[in-house]
Amino acid sequence: MITKKVEKALNDQIKLEAQSSQFYLAMASWAETQGFNGTATFLYAHSDEERMHMLKLVKFVNERGGTAIIPQLEAPPVAFESLNYIFEELLNHEVAVTKSINNVVDVCLQEKDYTTHNFMQWYVSEQIEEEGLARTINDKLNMIGKDKGGLYLFDRDLETMAATSTDAQ
Ligand code: OFO
To answer: How much distance in Å is there from the Cα of 114 to the middle of ligand 1?
Structure first.
């Protein structure tokens, strides 16, 4: 059984994961309309992953005697100024998600809820990967700058990355 404080922290996290999924879906859709098909494939897959993160939390809250709240979401932007902007936003967003996960872990410790604390470790590790990946992508984009040929190759690379990360799941 989870306490009200833990339930609230987990429900806040459900909302953030759902919001991440929507945000990346909007980025994917924009990238697709701009002809960046590899980036779109990568971001569509990333959006699906966030939905899976949300679902895992929903099921856990319900299993532990709480009530998962399926949240209302804010509309994400329709357009983005560039690929650089997208991936900077993605990194900032992931850093914020990590902070929020650390907060859930903190609440678990305050409430002496070691079961949820253990469950949350999966998210702690996942955030190390997600932030690392976002940083690598940003480094690549910074190297490429405005070079069209470089962006073309970058887009193709992301398609491969999307395929590899889906295989790894
Ligand atoms: Fe769910 O890890 Fe990204 O946001």
So the answer is: 22
